[in-house]
UniProtKB/TrEMBL annotation:
<feature type="binding site">
    <location>
        <position position="126"/>
    </location>
    <ligand>
        <name>ATP</name>
    </ligand>
</feature>
<keyword id="KW-0545">Nucleotide biosynthesis</keyword>
<feature type="binding site">
    <location>
        <position position="149"/>
    </location>
    <ligand>
        <name>Zn(2+)</name>
    </ligand>
</feature>
<feature type="binding site">
    <location>
        <position position="170"/>
    </location>
    <ligand>
        <name>AMP</name>
    </ligand>
</feature>
<dbReference type="GO" id="GO:0005524">
    <property type="term" value="F:ATP binding"/>
</dbReference>
<dbReference type="GO" id="GO:0004017">
    <property type="term" value="F:AMP kinase activity"/>
</dbReference>
<feature type="binding site">
    <location>
        <position position="159"/>
    </location>
    <ligand>
        <name>AMP</name>
    </ligand>
</feature>
<comment type="subunit">
    <text>Monomer.</text>
</comment>
<feature type="binding site">
    <location>
        <position position="152"/>
    </location>
    <ligand>
        <name>Zn(2+)</name>
    </ligand>
</feature>
<dbReference type="GO" id="GO:0005737">
    <property type="term" value="C:cytoplasm"/>
</dbReference>
<keyword id="KW-0862">Zinc</keyword>
<comment type="pathway">
    <text>Purine metabolism; AMP biosynthesis via salvage pathway; AMP from ADP: step 1/1.</text>
</comment>
<protein>
    <recommendedName>
        <fullName>Adenylate kinase</fullName>
        <ecNumber>2.7.4.3</ecNumber>
    </recommendedName>
</protein>
<dbReference type="Pfam" id="PF00406">
    <property type="entry name" value="ADK"/>
</dbReference>
<comment type="function">
    <text>Catalyzes the reversible transfer of the terminal phosphate group between ATP and AMP. Plays an important role in cellular energy homeostasis and in adenine nucleotide metabolism.</text>
</comment>
<feature type="binding site">
    <location>
        <begin position="135"/>
        <end position="136"/>
    </location>
    <ligand>
        <name>ATP</name>
    </ligand>
</feature>
<feature type="binding site">
    <location>
        <begin position="84"/>
        <end position="87"/>
    </location>
    <ligand>
        <name>AMP</name>
    </ligand>
</feature>
């Protein structure tokens, strides 16, 4: 089963993908994580993407689709959680084509719906592990030892695009470029909307399990 986690920045896509990977036989494909890996390895693509990402803007479809195509060419085509991809109608169409060519498809799209006020609070308090990519939160999900990842002892960092002025640009791009995917996947009869504003991440996970019959 292939799943898309759709939702605004800070809606909990990464948090829920981590739980699905830990508890079931899923693999997470986060385009944000792939871009950040390329940035830290200073690849050509990383250099091109870096300025856009730290400004809170989307990377062009052409680059993003190519990166996903390469990823899928070399690995599994089943039991993938697409986290943060697709993010435009063009990307959704490209993904469909890539999967069809591999005799595969998207089975369900989970929309994590969160109020904007809560998104802001989550993003400004987020800390991430540069090594294992897990995300923490200063208040909601603090690490056991301040500033240190519970799993690999790396020093936690703040993402450069988690500054309030960059968050505003990311939210705007979610509204203009990504939210049309809600109707796109409704038409394909794949969308399940989960309202998650006041739910703990454990409760959200239960709802996702129900929706996926896991
Ligand atoms: P990406 O890394 O995908 O960022 P994003 O979509 O902005 O989403 P986030 O990772 O910020 O949030 P999340 O939903 O994963 O939330 P999380 O679980 O961490 O992309 C970054 C950039 O890369 C983009 O802006 C763009 O430039 C580029 N890019 C990536 N994909 C692209 C594409 N397809 N096309 C073009 N460009 C692309 O949770 C957030 C915080 O909340 C955490 O601190 C967490 O602990 C906490 N939290 C989570 N759930 C709960 C809960 N239920 N209750 C309380 N706190 C919670
Ligand atoms: Mg994420």
């Amino acid at each position: 089963m292939n799943i898309i986690l759709l939702g605004a920045p800070g809606s909990g896509k990464g948090t829920q993908a981590e739980k699905l990977v830990q508890n079931f036989n899923f693999e997470q494909l986060s385009t944000g994580d792939l871009f950040r890996k390329n940035i830290s390895e200073k690849t050509q693509m990383g250099l091109e993407a870096s300025k856009l990402i730290s400004a809170g803007k989307l990377v062009p479809d052409e680059i993003t689709n190519k990166m996903v195509e390469e990823y899928l060419k070399n690995g599994n085509k089943e039991n993938i959680i697409f986290d943060g991809y697709p993010r435009t109608i063009n990307q959704a169409k490209a993904l469909k084509e890539i999967l069809v060519l591999n005799n595969s498809k998207i089975d369900k799209v989970i929309l994590l719906d969160v109020e904007e006020k809560i998104l802001l609070e989550r993003l400004v308090g987020r800390l991430i592990c540069p090594k294992c990519k897990r995300s923490y939160h200063l208040k909601n999900r603090p690490p056991k030892k301040e500033g240190i990842c519970d799993f690999d002892n790396s020093s936690l960092e703040t993402r450069p695009d988690d500054k309030p002025e960059k968050i505003a640009i990311r939210l705007q791009s979610y509204l203009s470029d990504t939210s049309p995917l809600i109707d796109y996947y409704k038409t394909e009869k794949k969308l399940v909307k989960i309202s998650v504003s006041n739910l703990t991440s454990e409760k959200v996970f239960e709802k996702i399990r129900e929706a996926l019959k896991l």
